[in-house]
Amino acid sequence: MEKMKNNMLLDLKNKNSIKIEKYFSDKDTYIRQKAYLIIGKIYKEHSHLKKVIIEILNELFTSCNEKIRQTVVYACGEIGKIDPPEIMDLLERALNEDNKSVRNAVVGSLKRIGEKNPNFIFKIAKKYLHHPDPRIRKQIIHGLELHGRTHPEEILPFLKELQNDKDKNVIKMMIHVLGQISYKKECLEKVVDNLSKWNNKNLVKKAIEEIIKVHDRYQKFSEKNAEEARMYIGKIL
User: Fold this and answer.
1) CA 85, CA 15: separation in Å to the nearest integer?
2) What is the CATH number of the domain that holds 207?
3) pTM score, whole prediction
């Protein structure tokens, strides 16, 4: 890893991306992961290279190699935990990607950034929540999930806005996220209270089914077991 870091540092100091591109395009997922983690560390430790890093990431994102574009997006996730405004434009470009692996990287990066800088993902959500492309709406919802696991009340208003979305995949993602943000301490109460005010009763019914399944599936990590969750929900809905 130290050798990789030194090679990438040398690239950045010379304002080129020969080694970086090699690592970003490697067939080995482990190598690509190390590469974007290293970029994040260099960005944090070498402030004088920040501008060069952003420039090179923007350049690499124009590559026809989806592995390179995917790794660029994951690198944005690492930088976004430290300095989210700097990668805003690049992440917005990535939202419009057609390649599935790159789109998945966008979700992963939004999740990681949301852990440290939730206001950043809220800003993106407000801008793209009602985007005409349902794939982008789905990405935004999924990107909110990780922060929602500990602060469901902060993402539920976004979900509520899309409760009557016409796209079945957006609705499926809504149901998935509602399940994922319901099982930790004091989260079920917040989610169920919010759902009691939704007008899409069919979606609420499916979400409740998913919430109970999640409590059963994550029994070791849930505050309540599936039966306790079912009983609580029955009292409210």
Assistant:
1) 22
2) 1.25.40.290
3) 0.90
Closest CA to 159 of 203, 119, 202: 203
Out of 102, 126, 150, a domain closes at 102
The answer to the question of residue 57 being in a domain is yes
Distance separating alpha carbons of residues 109 and 130, to the nearest angstrom: 20
- 153 shares a domain with 223: yes
Taking residues 51-62, report their average pLDDT: 96
Closest CA to 129 of 160, 162, 153, 157: 162
**Percentage above 90 pLDDT, the chain:** 88
Closest residue by Cα to residue 136 from 172, 98, 79, 109: 98
Tell me the average pLDDT across 133-144.
95
159/198 Cα distance (integer angstroms): 10
Q: Which amino acid is located at 162 in the chain?
A: L
CA distances from 52 to 13, 65, 145 (A): 8, 21, 32
CA 105 to chain centre: 8
Q: Let me know whether 73 and 124 are in one domain.
A: no
How far apart are alpha carbons 207 and 194 in whole angstroms?
12
Q: Could you identify the residue written with the tokens 């974007």?
A: 36
Last residue of a domain, one of 78, 102, 126: 102
